Amino acid sequence: MALRFLGTTSEHGNCPTLYEIEETGDLIVQGDLLTDPRHLAQLRDVKESEAFVVVPRELLTRYAPKE
Question: Which of 59, 57, 54, 58 is nearest to 6 (CA)?
């Protein structure tokens, strides 16, 4: 499956970055892992295979598909 680069708000090629899986329209977010134990403790229904990244609101409002 091909990925399409949607955009980034980073200055020097670091994360955060937003991609789309072209065949499905699903989004992939590249960002820093959420590590704050207080925030992790508040997440619900977490599967062992899941990871959480911090996404600046600006990244999504600027580059996320609107439809």
Answer: 59
